[in-house]
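We were asked to recover a plausible sequence for a given structure. The inputs and outputs are reproduced exactly as logged, with field labels preserved.

PROBLEM: sequence recovery
POSITIONS: 358
GIVEN STRUCTURE:
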């Protein structure tokens, strides 16, 4: 199998996200697989597919600093990004990549791990989708289905600005923010921290491509976007910058709140599952789910799966057995892949949102 390698170099911030969205939209079942590489010229904040920006990001700080906020079509959490990360985007026709996240992540993370090790960084794969060095995180990855493609995004972490990251996230107090900054410093690491220097980008790329060829069994070929791919990338830029897309999760909550009546309660809760933080907004009526919004920083394949899962839960009794059974049945029927998030996790989050009896 051929692997087209498209190195975009340093690009405008929005394009660093748009490239893989556009490439995925043009991919057909017989297309060659693509690995795109890119780094943003200027910093920005990127939020996961299923996150509510208002709950995760300090929008006032970002506005004051001129940091744009964009939503990607890949799960995971909000993150501050700048030119010190080299983004890697594997874009494969859906039929040429594993169909489950528990097989997808180990395969595509392995070339990254091998590259780190060859450079002298003691990297290890940590399920479900992290890379760690002696207990510190040096990179995460995210997966998505976009168009006819399976996409896995990641990065090489040359350096990371934990101080700015801590300021970008929404926290309950400045004391908590100081603790967050310290936690990021303790829990994260970078190539600069591990090696005392930032390796040359071309050297990283050459080693990485060699390991991609070995691990994935592909023939690596330098390439450039076709006219159709460039057009799709430009269309993706416009779509990602559309305020309706950026605010999509907030608009769901607004619609939910409009439905409140005298015998209806709108509540919210969060629950930490192994795969990430699960948030729900629950509209309850007469002891049942009247409506539901499910959000969080976890992965869901396909991307629209959470909305369909939430719709399937409407009418379910607000009891653990009923909620767990309904969630399990819907996940199976809809063919959803929720790595690290179980039906029991969803039930626990919904029950946490139930208004307690007086």
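RECOVERED SEQUENCE:
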């Amino acid at each position: 199998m051929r692997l087209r390698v498209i190195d975009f170099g340093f690009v405008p911030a929005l394009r660093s996200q748009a490239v893989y969205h556009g490439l995925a939209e043009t991919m057909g079942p017989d297309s060659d697989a693509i690995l795109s590489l890119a780094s943003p010229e200027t910093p920005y904040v990127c939020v996961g597919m299923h996150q509510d920006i208002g709950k995760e990001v300090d929008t006032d700080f970002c506005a004051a600093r001129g940091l744009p906020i964009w939503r990607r079509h890949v799960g995971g959490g909000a993150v501050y990004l700048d030119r010190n990360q080299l983004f890697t985007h594997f874009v494969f026709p859906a039929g040429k990549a594993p169909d489950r996240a528990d097989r997808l992540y180990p395969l595509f993370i392995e070339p990254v791990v091998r590259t780190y090790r060859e450079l002298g960084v003691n990297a290890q794969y940590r399920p479900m989708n992290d890379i760690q060095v002696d207990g510190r995180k040096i990179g995460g990855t995210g997966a998505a289905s976009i168009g006819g493609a399976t996409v896995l995004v990641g990065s090489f972490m040359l350096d990371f600005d934990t101080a700015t990251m801590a300021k970008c996230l929404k926290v309950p107090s400045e004391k908590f923010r100081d603790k967050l900054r310290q936690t990021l410093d303790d829990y994260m690491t970078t190539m600069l921290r591990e090696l005392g220097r930032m390796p040359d980008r071309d050297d990283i790329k050459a080693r990485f491509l060699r390991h991609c060829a070995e691990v994935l069994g592909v023939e690596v070929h330098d390439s450039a976007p076709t006219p159709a791919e460039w057009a799709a990338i430009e269309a993706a830029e416009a779509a990602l910058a559309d305020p309706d897309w950026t605010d999509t999760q907030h608009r769901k909550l607004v619609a939910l709140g409009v439905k409140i009546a005298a015998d209806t309660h709108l509540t919210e809760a969060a629950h930490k599952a192994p795969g990430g933080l699960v948030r729900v907004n629950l509209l309850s009526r007469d002891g049942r789910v009247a409506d539901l919004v499910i959000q969080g920083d976890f992965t869901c394949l396909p991307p629209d799966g959470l909305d369909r899962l939430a719709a399937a839960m409407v009418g379910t009794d607000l009891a653990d057995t009923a909620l767990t059974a309904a969630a399990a049945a819907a996940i199976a029927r809809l063919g959803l892949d929720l790595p690290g998030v179980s039906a029991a996790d969803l039930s626990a989050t919904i029950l946490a949102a139930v208004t307690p009896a007086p």
